[in-house]
Every structure is written in structure tokens, then in C-alpha cells.
Amino acid sequence: MSTRLKILIIDDEENMRHMLSVMLHKYGYSAELAEDGGAALKLLSEHSYNFIICDIIMPGMDGLSFLRQAVVSGVTTPIIMMAAYGTKEIADRCMKEGAVDFICKPFKHHDLINKLLKISGAE
């Protein structure tokens, strides 16, 4: 990957944020981390990103609240939502709210990378 694409990772679990950051770095992406939707909105007001990967269930501002607020605020960055207990209904709801994709945790690294490549048109 010639240009490092910048990804905002939003998850309340420090281990998940770290794992995603390390994995994405191995594939040539750079990552910034936020522990909840409120922290993510602050980062979005200061920086731009190529993608956002956001957990749904978090204390404080949860993922769906973040997604709604981001859409209302005019954020056009593609957002991939993720959840440990994902169902078709949850995935459909995320897509209706403005997410471009959904992935269930745990997932294989290549599944997430393939989603990023597909969304960016590099697949």
C-alpha cells in the first residue's frame, strides 16, 4: 500500500483496540484509537480518517449513538460497525443508520482487510 490510510478504531476494550491497531499496521494502515463514541467525535473534529471501525456495545456513548451523531454531523468517512453478538437485525439496523458494513467479533484479519479493500475500491 503506497499511501498509509488512516483508520479510527473505536472500542471500549483496550486489548481489542491494540490488536486491531497492530494488525492494521501490518497491512500498511495507520490507526488512531478511541475508547468510546464521545472520544471518537472529538478526534473527528480534529482529524480526518479514511475509515472508521466502531464497536456497538460500549459504556458512555455507544456505537449506534456515535453512528447517528456522526451522520447528523455530516461525517462522510465510511464506518464499519462491529459487535461480539451480531445478528442480522443488528447488522441491518447499522446499515440503515449509515454504516457501510458490519463485522462480527471475533473475525479473521483477512475478513476485515477484504472489507476495507472492497470499500476503498482496491479489491
Automatic annotation (TrEMBL):
Record bears the keyword rRNA-binding: no
Any Pfam family: Response_reg
Name under which the protein is recorded: Response regulator receiver domain-containing protein
Lineage top rank: taxon: Bacteria
Response regulatory domain location: 6-120
Keyword Phosphoprotein: yes
SUPFAM superfamilies: CheY-like
4-aspartylphosphate: residues bearing it: 55
Key words of the record: Phosphoprotein
Any Gene Ontology biological process: phosphorelay signal transduction system
